[in-house]
Amino acid sequence: MRKIVIAVFAAFVAASLLAGCDQQQSEEAMGKLKSFFNSVKPDNLLLKDLKPGITTEAQIRDQMGEPETTRTFTDGSKRLEYPRGPAGTTTYFVDIDSDGHFVNVTQVLTAENIAKVRVGMTMDEVRRLLGKPTTLAEYPLKKERVWSWHWLEDGVNRDAMFNAHFGPDGTVVTTSRSEAEGGGRH
Questions:
Q1: Which of 54, 64, 122, 165 is the most buried (most CB within 10 A)?
Q2: Residue % of the chain over a pLDDT of 70
Q3: Nearest CA to 47 among 86, 9, 6, 80?
Q4: What is the distance between the terminal CA atoms of the chain, rounded to a whole angstrom?
Q5: Burial bucket for residue 148 (CB in 10 Å: 0-12, 13-18, 19+)
């Protein structure tokens, strides 16, 4: 299925380019194509050849695409967030030092990080720990907002959803686990 989607998208972009698009439209189409390919690129290619102290932020963005979120810290270092999805089971945080060079990459959707989510944490604190949620749900009658992350519960092949339930004040009131759509990965 993925090959079909890629082929259809590539054909669409090629047709657009051949239809007499101007330079700006061509560049936008190529940017969209590159972004699409980065979103489906296997992790081993996404993270290939990242060298601490050598690889630059520009090289990372070229290889991995634009991050979902960029956080800049007071010391000038940065954290780039790359959720794999739309329903992927990994989210990578890429740390950049104040000189603009790669420090490390961390897969944050782990049992260790999920266990750190505690009652009373703010939405921002949870987001900084786990990255962008896979889904957001509002329950007005319960006065509750639920953020859910798709992850591999056993680290290998057991799909699950981790859910953080936020009250009206925007802090965690409880957490839960649910089955991922379609059950376990095969």
A1: 64
A2: 77
A3: 80
A4: 16
A5: buried
